[in-house]
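Journal club side-thread
Mid-discussion, someone asked how the predicted structure for our own chain would compare to the paper's figures. Pasting it here so we can look after the session.
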Amino acid sequence: MDAAFIIAACLGGVTALAIRLPPLVGFLAAGFALNMLGYESTPLLTTIAEVGVTLLLFSIGLKLNVRHLLKGEVWGSASLHMIGSSLLFLLVLGALKWLGLEQLGNTGWSTLLLLGFALSFSSTVFVVKVLEKRSETQSAHGRLALGVLIMQDVFAVIFISTSSGELPSPWALGLVLLKPLAPLLRQTLDRFGHGEMQMLFGMFLALVLGYGLFELVGLKGDLGALVIGLLLAPHPAAGNLSRSMFNLKELLLVGFFLSIGFTSTPTWEMLGLAMLLVLVLPLKSLLYQVVFMAFPMRHRTSLLATLTLTNYSEFGLIVGALAVATGWLAQEWLVVLSLAVALSFAFSAVLNTVSESAYRRLEALLPARQEQALSTRERPIEIGDAQAVVLGMGRIGRSVYRRLRKQYGLRVLGIDSNPKTVTDLGERGFNLLEGDALDSDFWDKLLMSDDVQMVILAMPHHSGNLFALQQLRNRQFPGRITAVVEYPEEIEPIRELGANAVFHVYDEAGRALADSAAETAGVAPVAQQMG
């Protein structure tokens, strides 16, 4: 790969961070800048982009529960929005044509509907990166947004298969055998342990068994990676596999965002039309909100999912390429769609930095929800007679939970945002509730009893622990708060917010290990030796 690609990506990412935008906005700008400077995409960049997207969908599958996709608010809202949004953009584009917009002069209604269909999709790549950055993939609105995106991917596969005129191979029916093969795949994953062999096996599953096999039978390879991830999701090691591949996936996705800029060289007229499409985004966003409100969920869940999905999708470029290849659309529309996708990412990135405050402002304008009309998981949380609450039931949280119960005899309640974790630990006898501590409504729903003496913040992300601590202090929680940190620089912010104790994982583990080693060797502490 040309060194200019790496230099441009670095400069773009640093510039975006300097103006408080996500790095991906800088990567998009870098791609367009390289294109205008005369650089062309290379086969290596294309491969990197494709592998990055494939690993992204594989990692999504590792975190998802298939049953979640079958819920009405997921497949129902995705279907309703796709139909409504396609018709909405058909009307908008038809109005622009009627007003005399030159680029739409010879465009038929069927082509306008095709463009509307392309613009109805939201970007899987962008949304997942936003949710992962904020540790919200397992939040209520995060799961809703991801479910909608996966249903949109299914619609995309159906469209591509039918529009290309090439139906999948009859051998595609054999893919149903992957379901009974799933237990064998999980057992094999166990044998690879941790480290590079586990990651290598994950690459094999995503790129060969998933992508390669589905492409072989005429289906979209990305969908294959997603399906394999879903089959592995119930395995306890799925989360660790996803985490081990995270940095590699993030690096490869830089190639994807760069590649968008190489679609074609834009003109000012194309840029103006793309900006018009971005101005229509609020209508698409409003339609998401209206559709979500038809289902029994809190306004925060629907509104934050709506804001997350307020963007255009790279799928629009695929539809555009198909339409150009068949002569339905002029070549310039491919550039317009590329610009619209890139601009929508920048717009959505800014929008999602203020999503929580936007929700607080807009909540009062939405109709009140009756508690009885909400689904069970959306209703207020009662913690019963618990004396200690552990937020975050990962490895550290589980250890804290056991210690407080067995050693100190306390009544302990664990809270975690991952429904799979709640189910699995519940079956093992843990007293657990599902709840998202990053959800401001969670704290409004939480009915903290007078019995609670302490709260332990054991969530894996520093930002989550900070947010939870702030919410507890804002509500004048009278008990003791202890927080876990991973890095030394995280200690002071936690203390400034009023934590009674801070536990530095590596430092405390090192002390415990040193004490154990000295005790085993019969070495007394210096103070005792001097005494």
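Post-session note: DSSP finds 26 helices and eight strands in the chain.
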